[in-house]
Amino acid sequence: MSASSGKRDLTKLNVGFIGGGNMAYSIAAGLLRAGVLKPNQITVSATNLNNLKARWNPLDVNRLTTSNAQVLLESEIVFLCVKPHILSACKESILREAESIENLTAHCHEKILVSILAGVPLAKLKDTFNFLHIQHVRTMPNTPMQVGEGCTIYCAGFEDNKHFQVPGIILSYYEDIKFMLNQLGLAYEVKETQMDGITGLTGCGPAFVYEIIEALADGGVKQGIPRDMALKMAAQTVLGSAKTVLETGKHPAVLKDEVCSPGGATIYGVHELEKGAMRATLMNAVEKSAARAKELS
């Protein structure tokens, strides 16, 4: 886990988002919710300004633009939140929008580009944006960070040489990034070789959990519970169970056994889950998602 858990003053930091979709919104909303940033510290770009305003103005974020180059100029830390397949188009838009590439490059050498692109390695980021001479951090966050319960993994392209070649301001911004990610939930610094495998668990995992919550709620509805009540009960049950694992430190199997009374209702339900290969299915889902992340790279 990141060692950057101490309080940091980010009031003078400008943070940009190239791409204003779900993940950018989750990161920004989480940072605003935690009081780490103020709305006037955030700049966001996307192709449709009206859509940006509709989504981001309710957060009081008004620094909105269709220019990716503007985000780079106005921000010290820039989150790259576009789809992996439009990475090249993003590069072309920056080259097209910049009034002067030389000026843009001069301003970017002491900035960090934080990629959330699944499957895109640091080497490809460096090659794509080599004209900017910008530093790179690769991350895989997940959407629960918008409520402060995210799980993010990250690695930096400059860590191995930080004591020799990297400016102190870059190392300071890297600590700012670590701090921000830790305010959004759990954050772990990992080796890049681990990124794709963990993506299948943390990056894709929320979708699997939402399926479980929906299925539990459907089961409740089948038993005559009103839909709204069943959904809230299912979500709270998952939330409480996850929190119990984290706070007690007990293995899930131990906690499961504590619920399963001999001959009771729970063990009958667990038996049905085993017949349905629930554990194997979830393991396969993580494996397939991780494999897809590798394919994207």
Number of strands: 8
Average pLDDT level: 92
Radius of gyration equals: 21 Å
**Residue windows where pLDDT falls under 50 for at least 5 positions:** none
Largest sheet: 8 strands, mixed
- Tally the helices: 13
- Report how far apart the termini are: 25 Å
Shape, principal axes of CA atoms: elongated
- What is the spatial order of strands in the main beta sheet? 3-2-1-4-5-6-7-8
Content of β-strand: 5-15%
Work out the helicity level: 40-55%
Strand-pairing-aware structural class:
alpha/beta
Features:
eight-stranded mixed beta sheet, alpha/beta, 297 residues
Describe this structure in words.
The protein is α/β, with parallel strands linked by helices. About 55% of the residues lie in helices and about 10% in strands. The protein has 13 helices and eight strands. The protein has helices at about 20-35, 50-55, 70-75, 85-95, 100-110, 120-130, 170-185, 195-205, 205-220, 225-250, 250-260, 265-275, 280-295, and strands at about 15-20, 40-45, 65, 75-80, 110-115, 135-140, 150-155, 185-190. Strands 3-2-1-4-5-6-7-8 form an eight-stranded mixed beta sheet, with helices on both faces. Helix 7 links the parallel strand 7 and strand 8. Helix 8 (about 195-205) packs across helix 13 (about 280-295) and helix 9 (about 205-220) packs across helix 10 (about 225-250). The longest helix is centred in the C-terminal third of the chain and has 22 residues, at about 225-250. It starts with 14 loop residues before the first strand and ends with a helix. The mean pLDDT is about 90.
